[in-house]
Design brief:
Layout: H1 5-37, H2 41-57, H3 62-78
Amino acid sequence: MANIKANKKSIRQTAKRAASNRTVRTRLKSVIKELNAAPTKEKGSLVASTLDKAVKKGVIHRNKANRLKAAIAKALAKK
């Protein structure tokens, strides 16, 4: 455990951020699973929106979100 006051605060902040990021990632994974189960255009746009929100919050990188959205669009275009 940290002895310095600033380090204790840093530990608290990190735990809080990690919890917030975990909820966003979990939501993202569940939305993607729903899309894979029954792919529709509406679910595709929901996934894209969720990815954009995750990028905005800094949870995932912008390029990863773009790569996933492109893959989703490609899969939906096939069907």
